[in-house]
Design brief:
12 strands, mainly beta, Cathepsin D, subunit A, domain 1, globular, three-stranded antiparallel beta sheet, 49% strand, 2% helix, 1 helix
């Protein structure tokens, strides 16, 4: 039990993000990905062109192809599967998606997040950064964008949707 006059623990201030930011996923070899910061989405999603499953040392793994729009030439990446869960998209459609754990680097903060692999072809942002990745470290100012640096130009498909 804490003493009633004991000082409250000091939490570090939360970093303010805009509604869109450039993020790095260094474990996946991605230095700058355009991400829509979406507090309405529980989980984070990353666009992949293809994905396939395999078993390594008795554990489930996923292989996936990252498109040239995510910085450089198309390349294949592999990662251990964390989980498989149903996700409901903004249109109300439920799909079973593979989740993995990876490092997010944003605004000088590095943290482990869960991310699902999705077909976001035709979306303006190849990544959606959901509220579980933001919790306890970030707050969002929806009137601002790219507060922590802009991504390189020409790295996302053109589309009005997000």
């Amino acid at each position: 039990m804490t003493h009633p006059h004991a000082p409250k623990p000091v939490r570090p201030p939360r970093v303010v993000l805009g509604w869109r930011e450039s993020v790095a996923l260094p474990d996946l070899g991605l230095a700058a990905v355009k991400a829509k910061v979406d507090t309405g989405a529980r989980s984070s999603a990353l666009h992949v062109d293809q994905q396939w499953r395999f078993v390594e040392a008795g554990a489930p793994w996923v292989g996936f192809r990252l498109s040239p729009g995510l910085g450089g030439a198309a390349r294949d990446v592999v990662a251990p599967v964390l989980d498989e869960r149903e996700v409901t998209d903004s249109g109300g459609r439920r799909t079973l998606r593979v989740f993995l754990r990876t490092t997010l680097r944003l605004a000088g903060i590095e943290r482990e997040i869960e991310i699902n692999l999705s077909d976001r072809r035709g979306m303006l942002f190849p990544m959606l950064l959901g509220r579980t990745a933001l919790a306890r470290a970030f707050t969002v100012d929806p009137a601002r964008s790219y507060l922590h640096g802009r991504p390189p130009q020409g790295d996302a498909p053109a589309s009005p949707s997000g």
